[in-house]
């Protein structure tokens, strides 16, 4: 028999398999419903969903409704019925609830989606029948992602459509991109029905007729699929619903297989449940599935017309062990058992030992080795633990049972090999009943034997047909239950061994077994069986009915490979031995959730001391019994088990740890909690065991004579909450200084208070000593010092300096001391050596001065802390108080951003620096405020807001500071300047709108001179005005224009060191300089992008060296000039990076020359280093010369070095050697003379750069400042002789030149040797060595063949040239008149045309004259184009007053040459009669036409005035409108037009009509006298209500009523007016009404402003003339009325203040109550309930500190509608007694 046993084991060992995911088993819990249409009943329920509150929503499809239930099945509400309207349904199918609780339903029969609140209130709908985007053909499944986007399965179109939360179509997918066709490929569908989006936003679609599930991302990209047709695991027959559980596993409704299948997110099969039928847990065509908030699963059992709820009964918890022989490793683990505390015992058969674990899987100990001695084993198998904790082991191949204590101490043994009573053959499993009797599965003897606890034989249970009893247990009734692996059955025997029943058969289906091994039973009698070779566990009820199963072949979590032993532990814990996977799998059968740990308090303890845990927080703690296990766990250390564990609530546990004293245990520990059901959780690194240490104290020092100073001590091992911890300062030779108010916050922190003696003997270093509650103490040696008070620095001036220079500074503050040791001042910056100030002079305790020598470029730049150290060593630090930089205008720092907070800007405009105090002020234009900063950008404060009061601004612009620190602000749209002190206090203001002295168009820029006079640039007034510091006018200068001293929109103004005034003349793109009296000195700049040019000069500033900085706004740069405008340098470009600008405006400099720029559109200030003293070049004289010549140059500029070492001057050109000037003499700082020897050869000709370099290396280059030019000559190139030119033609005269013959030439025409004429006196010389002039040869030029041209330099006549030979000028081109040319007859009023032809070029135009005989009658046209291609013509109409005659002629003459002319060869006639006429018949004066009436305009005509006429309406002589642009002139000499007058035609008596031919404008006529347009008095509108005197409440519903007569049109416009101004359009198109009356119901909004002056106006939309307004005004009163206190009451301090009010309508749920004194709010009570039934009240106790007074009121205001408010009518009194 032993051989059989071994063979079976070896056979079992050789089987292998795959993997699956962790299972969760479900069991039927409850059902509700039934066939019907009553609430709670169903007719074919399909879709189902659950919200976050656990409510369940069911689509009751054939009842066309949605029903809502509690998770327990209690009916809550329903909505919907059959129909097509919103909120109605036609066979709805799918349902989902989004994250906000909104319910979405697929209304399948209506091909739409409907959206509801959780209570069924309709919100939205979208979709219709069709195959377009957003259209459906039977939509079914619906789901939402985390962003509330909606996914709909379009069943009939075989696709999925995606929408945003409002139903806007986003995307679709399916075959061919979702074109509506079916398919079987990946991403294609065939009648899909279900859809789900999991927690990771992956979309799962149930592809029903393809019998599969497909997986996609949110954009429809295919990710995978599983399933095929069939009934096996993972197969489907018409799958439908789908959902996910809390672990992300997927559950699918397999409709035609009448079951639920569960898969991993990747589609690996886990488990299934359900069969066809009507019993609990069975299904008939299940459809929908939902996962509830408490892990339950809801199924719509459609064919049974019910809902079934399932609860989780098997949950995977943990796995323990791996293959091996070390602690916690296994070889073929078989038996498993729990003790009463939840510890687990495993028979490690292959290692011949027993291993013990805590409930959370922590290895505790092991015992046993291979052998036959006591405590040794040979393949131990079964194991059990009795109620007293003794462990019984079936020692199989030693054929005995051994008994041990819980820690492995051997107790006893019995049994040996044999077949007799008490003898054993390969005993396997062991069970113990409540009385302690022991039952042994005597496997080789095919029997169960019973023993008492000491091993005394009791009886043998033979059963019925025993073969191989493997596992054994005792059920709740004391019956013996065992598993027979050979017969594939489970047997139940009575306590005495009598046969009761058996269950199971060989197979793989539900309730079938293949080598069942272990068996366990729970308190309900349910059986758990390890179905070994089916690699699963099955659960059966007490009568053997199948309930559920889990597990499959594999090694993943929840899979098995030959499970053997099984045991149930405390609280529903369950463990199986997964033998071939060499591990133990732990589950819970309680259905409870796994515990969660949040925090532990306290989170540390001290070595060797007990610690009471007052709050181990989390959730899902089980109360037991037994209580949960709480332990501290750390690798390499024994568990520290908690005692006195008390579950205060499912979220809170208290316990106690007795901490070890071993120093090795100091450190971080995990906290582990294990519920009685075996579910465990660990909170990693959550607890510290530590010894007492003092690590630090903050702050680490104190000051003598100070008291009550708080300190924080850090360390380890402090005992939180202890009241007897002491802290002292200790030093030899001085009494201890004890701390007070000691409070241990945590184990690592305590707080306390020290008071220090005034005795200077206490100065020095002290130990910090902490003494714990147990007497332990620790000290921080020399950890604390007591010192004199440190110095405190408030400011430093100046606060900037340049490198490689010295600067003297003054510091202000307190606590500065002098003594034996020097006081030190230093600049400190990380990574740089300190800059030490010398000598330091302590002027007072609040002031000292010193000098800094700032080093060179590399070591001296940056932002520095300023440190003052007193003689006693006490130091004070002024953080980031000083800036240094190289003098190169480089970027230093910036501050500000777009916003409204402190230090933020919204389009700042100007900036100024208080150079005496190193403070910066910035005008924040759009926020109407001024902000104050340090020079490093630290915000110090600000003031201002929108308005015209004192200290308020309306678009402030410029700013400046005087010598005393007063600030002047240009308040542009208040047309004034305001003055403030340095603490923002208002002092005065001046100015008003106007153009007189002291008045402003728009005050803009501000500047202050050395006498504190104030200069204002008036942007619109184009003046600079000067005032004294109190605003008294002194003078003004400027004026509009572009001349010197004139201005166009001067933006900014500045004053230099000599009190000269500089003005940014913005629109003239220049800078102007004046004396302080306004006398013009100089100017520079022009429009452009070059050096010294501007695109709107904006800000302007000067520095102490006289440099002028100009903000070049449109070019996004700053340019630097000398005091006289010589360009020196520039920086900046467009952008938002450092040193870039987006339209800079203001600029300022400080005393060290640092430059501050307001970067307007980047909403910031940028700071730049000073500019170096660099030379500048204004001009060079001469600026050109010829090759090989010596050039004696005079260079004008600025900042030239005049010392012994001279500047260098170099001419440079690419590709050529430099030309180095000699004899350089810096005559002055703005003048250099030098000599340059120019190279010979034409290759040197060209533009050369001129560079001046001062001895200090500073340089300036004037690009192309000098030219080497050719030797001077002029050569005529056309004409050269032989040309044939014609009079009247344009010819080109051309020449070449070299060198510099001067800017102009004289061009002459010679005939023979004589001068004929000067063609041009001063022609430009040309460009790039050539020139030309186009000459029109006069028509009167004498023809001839002896002409020449001579060209001569105007500057130097020696430069000239003449044509080499003569050329010809022939006769000019003629003009010939062709019509009228004689004998024609013209009638007055007829159109005619004059024709001519021409040759050559007589000029571009001709003049046409009319003559009678030889006398000119008149000019027909002074100029008309000559024509094209030799022909020209001109149309005219013969004047109606032209007298008849036979002597008319026409003359045509060139306007360029009067000799080029011709006239009619013979006279023509003008005969009597006219060509045509038009006469207006009506209206012709006196008529009265009414608005809206139809009238006829009539006219007569003669002749042929053309086919159409223009008709115009005039008022007076002005055209009001063109009635018709081209009306037919009419047949037979008359015409007419019907005109319907507009209803809104203005009334008047001055109308006329004018009619004109569209062909010939002279044919026209106008009404002889005016006519009238009057009102249609047949219609009117009269407002009846409100008509004056009414009083309406906010929120009330009122009727607007009116009457009307006639026909004012179908609609009216209703307006609300207040104070005769339109407040709102109530309705632009309200119906006019019927039976001559109309009305409109208006609900007055609760936010309607209170007060009188309201009227209603009703106006016809057809004719605004029909209108009426309320005769008088009405009033709107508050919906809330204060009733108490309402005036006259008296209350005493300490009394209850009753506050009562009434309200009308629904002004909102809450009010705010303001308690006011003199209209100032003292306190506001917010969110007070408005009350009920139209009244509300609230009471407060009047506080003891309330000031007395008789001027109190309360104000009650709706929190929903702030305008809905009321205040006590009169004041009430609060008195002291």
Write the layout of secondary structure elements.
Elements: H1 2-13, E1 24-33, E2 45-50, E3 56-60, E4 65-69, E5 75-79, E6 95-97, E7 103-107, E8 112-116, E9 122-126, E10 139-144, E11 150-154, E12 159-163, E13 169-174, E14 194-197, E15 203-207, E16 212-216, E17 222-226, E18 239-244, E19 250-254, E20 259-263, E21 269-273, E22 286-291, E23 297-301, E24 306-320, E25 322-323, E26 329-330, E27 333-338, E28 344-348, E29 353-357, E30 363-367, E31 380-385, E32 391-395, E33 400-404, E34 410-414, E35 427-432, E36 438-442, E37 447-451, E38 457-461, E39 469-474, E40 480-484, E41 489-493, E42 499-503, E43 516-521, E44 527-531, E45 536-540, E46 546-550, E47 563-568, E48 573-578, E49 583-588, E50 596-601, E51 604-606, E52 610-619, E53 629-633, E54 640-641, E55 643-649, E56 652-658, E57 667-674, E58 680-690, E59 693-698, E60 701-703, E61 709-716, E62 726-731, E63 734-738, E64 740-746, E65 749-754, E66 764-771, E67 777-787, E68 792-797, E69 800-802, E70 805-814, E71 824-828, E72 835-836, E73 838-844, E74 847-854, H2 857-860, E75 862-869, E76 875-885, E77 891-895, E78 908-914, ...
Parallel strand pairs: 25-26, 51-58, 60-67, 69-76, 102-109, 111-118, 120-127, 129-136, 138-145, 147-154
Antiparallel strand pairs: 1-24, 2-3, 3-4, 4-5, 6-7, 7-8, 8-9, 10-11, 11-12, 12-13, 14-15, 15-16, 16-17, 18-19, 19-20, 20-21, 22-23, 23-24, 24-49, 27-28, 28-29, 29-30, 31-32, 32-33, 33-34, 35-36, 36-37, 37-38, 39-40, 40-41, 41-42, 43-44, 44-45, 45-46, 47-48, 48-49, 50-52, 52-56, 53-54, 53-57, ...
